[in-house]
Amino acid sequence: MKIMESVELRGCSIDELIEICQEIGLKRFRATQLFQWAQQKAVRTWDQMKTVGEGDRQTLSSHLHLYPLERIREQRSQDGTRKYLFRLNDGETIECVLMDYARTISRDRHTVCVSTQVGCAVGCAFCATGLEGFRRNLSVAEIVGQVLDITHYVRQEDPDFQVTNIVFMGMGEPLLNYDQVLKGIQLLNHGQGQAIGMRRMTISTCGVVPKIIQLAKDNPQVGLAVSLHAAQDEVRNDLIPMNRRYPLAQLMEACQEYSQITHRRITFEVALTSKNARRGEAEALARLLKGQLGHVNLIPVNPVEGTGMERPDIEQIKRFAQVLENAGIPVSSREERGGDIDAACGQLRRKWEGEL
Ligand code: SAH
Ligand code: SF4
Q1: Fewer CB atoms near the end CB (10 Å): N or C, the chain?
Q2: Do 102 and 158 touch, CB atoms closer than 8 A?
Q3: pTM score, two decimals?
Q4: Catalytic site includes residue 345
C-alpha cells in the first residue's frame, strides 16, 4: 500500500498496518500492537500507546492519522438509551445511539446504532436524516470510530464496558457506502479488536437491490433488515423514493435470492403511521411476504417535524400484528427506545443545527 495523506489508523487492517510498518522501517510486530491499541483499547491519542516507544510513535503519527470523534452532545434517556452527537474531523456531525445501557437493565447486551453517511440521498418521507439531504460517505475509520469512541466514553464510568451488538441503522444508507461498511464490519469482528460476532451485527437498507445481491454473495454472516414500510408500489413510492428505481417485485426477488444463498432470515421493518396501520395494508403485506424466509418488525413511526406523520395508537398496532400472525408471518413489535431524547434517526442533529 502506498502511504498517502489520507490513511487513518482506525480504518486499517493488521495486514495494511504490517505493510505500512515495513515501508516506514518499523518492526512488523508493531502492526499488531497498533491494531490492538486502536481497535481493542479504543485509545484516542498516540501517547496512550504505552508499549510503543516515543520514537516509533513520532514516526507513525507523521504517516497515519488518528482522528477521534469529538462528542459535542450526549443525551441520556430514562430507559438506558444514550444518544451522541459526534463532530468529525472536517466539522460535519453525525449521530450515534447506544441502546440497552444501564446497570439495572442489562449487563450482557449493549447495542450501538451506527451511522454510515453524513445525511442521506434517499430522502424517505418520514426520516429526519433524509430531509437534510446528502453530505458525504463516512470513511471506515469514522464508521468504526463511533463504536470505539462510545466505548471510550462509557469506560470512563464503567471500565469493563464492551459493545456487544451493532445495528447499521443510524444516519445514511449503508448499502450506498458498501465497501466502507463491509470493511468496518470486518474490523469490528476481528479477534484482536472489538471481536463483535458477525451474527451480532445487522445492516438495514431501504432496498438497494444490486447491493443486497452482492451482500448475499459476499455473505459476511451479518443480519439483514429491509425497510419495507409498505407492500404496494404506489404507497411505497411516496414513502421511499428508492422504490421508483427498485420496485417491490425486484426487491422481493432480491430478498428471495438473499435467503436462498445465505439461508438467513430477513427482518422486514414496517414503520406504522396513523394512516398506514390499516387492515388493507396488513393484508397486502401478508400477501407480499408469503413464502419469504423472514419476520416483520413493527415500529410506531417517530413523528418528525415537517413530515406530517403521526403515530398510530397501540390498538391499531395490535390489530395490524394480528392480521400478519393469522397469515402465519412471524411478527414482533419494536419497543420504543429513547423517545424522550429525540432518538429518531437524524432528529438530534437537526435540532442541534437549528440552535447554531
Ligand atoms: N438507510 C437505512 C438505515 C438507516 S434508517 C434504512 O433506511 O433502512 C434505520 C431505520 O429507521 C429504517 O428502518 C428507517 O426506515 C427507520 N426510520 C427512519 N425514520 C424513522 C421515523 N421517523 N420513525 C420510525 N422509523 C424511522
Ligand atoms: Fe436514508 Fe434510511 Fe432515512 Fe430513508 S430512512 S432517508 S434510506 S437514512
Answers
A1: C
A2: no
A3: 0.94
A4: yes
Taking CA atoms only, the protein residue closest to ligand 1 atom 3 is 169
Q: Are 16 and 4 in contact (CB under 8 A)?
A: no
- Would the pLDDT of 117 be above 50? yes
Active-site residue flag, 132: no
Residue 202 has pLDDT above 90, yes or no: yes
Domains along the sequence of the chain with CATH: 9-61 (1.10.150.530), 70-355 (3.20.20.70)
Active-site entry in 124, 206, 255, 345: 345
Catalytic, out of 95, 142, 173, 269: 95
**Cβ atoms 141, 39 nearer than 8 A:** no
Residue nearest to atom 8 of ligand 2 (CA): 172
Amino acid at 320: F
59-112 per-position pLDDT tens digit: 999 999 999 999 999 999 888 889 999 999 999 999 999 987 765 555 688 999
